[in-house]
Write a structure and sequence with these properties.
The strands form 2 sheets. The protein has a 7-stranded mixed sheet. A 3-stranded antiparallel sheet has the order 3-5-4. It is an alpha/beta fold and 276 residues long. The longest helix is centred in the N-terminal third of the chain and has 17 residues. The protein folds into 2 domains: 64 residues, no CATH class; 193 residues, Vaccinia Virus protein VP39 (Rossmann fold, 3-Layer(aba) Sandwich), CATH 3.40.50. A hairpin with a 3-residue loop joins β4 and β5. Helices cover 43% and strands 17% of the residues.
Length: 276
């Protein structure tokens, strides 16, 4: 297996920045190193120089690189207690207070686990026509995968158990079909989803968002990048909009207390303060 050193990683980051204007310099080093080495194994690349050459010589490979460098969600309905809270405390009230369609943004989609989980629950609540879901990701490959509905069957098995803990009265099987080693999710659930390809700084992020699901993602950035992303998220949220970062993460920084208030500490749900 390839073993990248600090110099190798800096050379790759420098090449990607100079050739494609994507700056991964503020990604957490350990996880970024692991993802780079995984890409090299998948595509039989032995050295940092070989990876850089592949990026420069293959026009389609950069999108593949962006897809592989991101970490997909492990399963649908992960942390069922959060989804129950969203149903009980967030969805209906969020829509009732909105004069138009409420906007929900998922900034870091890869496999569509979060997207389909959200769409299923919005559909169950009868709110698909009252909510506008925006799913953004780094690569076109991620968008194509989500639109196809394909999903790992092993992950679906775990997802079924998660869904039972969210809604014991329903069976997740009504939303997918099983194939050979894969599941095919019902793509009608996402037919009105707006898909965006955004860069790593979320430039041109959507605005007036009532709920942002950005779970288990902060750990992949260093503190500098975390501050940048939180600033973008703050500006994207509508007044009193919600930010969910995941049960294993907390947001921090010099302006966090001024900009956000905790509304569910157990589930790490924050709300944009009305006045900063």
């Amino acid at each position: 297996m390839p073993e990248l050193g600090i110099v190798d990683i800096r050379e790759i980051i420098g090449a990607v920045k100079s050739d494609f204007d994507y700056d991964f310099g503020n990604y957490a080093l350990t996880s970024f190193k692991q993802r780079l080495e995984r890409i090299m194994v998948l595509y039989n690349i032995c050295t940092a120089e070989g990876l850089i050459m592949k990026l420069r010589s293959d026009n389609d490979f950069f999108d593949t690189f962006l897809y592989e460098i991101t970490v997909p969600s492990s399963e649908m309905f992960r942390d069922p207690s959060l989804w129950r809270w969203l149903i009980e405390a967030c969805f209906t009230g969020m829509v009732d207070k909105s004069t138009g369609k409420s906007r929900i943004w998922l900034p870091a989609c890869v496999s569509g686990a979060e997207l389909y989980s959200l769409a299923i629950l919005i559909s169950e609540a009868g709110l698909l026509d009252k909510v506008h879901i925006i799913a953004s990701c780094l690569s076109n490959k991620s968008i194509e995968l989500m639109k196809s509905g394909f999903y790992d069957l092993k992950k679906m098995e775990v997802s079924v158990e998660n869904f039972k803990r969210v809604n014991s009265a329903k069976d997740l099987s009504i939303y997918y079909k099983s194939g050979h080693n894969f599941a095919l999710r019902d793509t009608r659930l996402i037919q009105n989803v707006e898909f965006l390809r955004l860069n790593i700084n979320f430039d041109n992020a959507p605005q007036n968002i009532r709920l942002i699901l950005f779970r288990n993602s902060m750990i992949y950035y260093n503190p500098t990048q975390q501050e940048k992303i939180l600033h973008v998220i703050y500006n994207s949220l509508s007044p009193s909009g919600y930010l969910v970062v995941g049960i294993k993460e907390k947001i921090s920084g010099i302006n966090t207390g001024r900009d956000f208030e905790i509304v569910n500490e157990t589930e790490s749900v924050y709300r944009k303060r009305l006045f900063s």
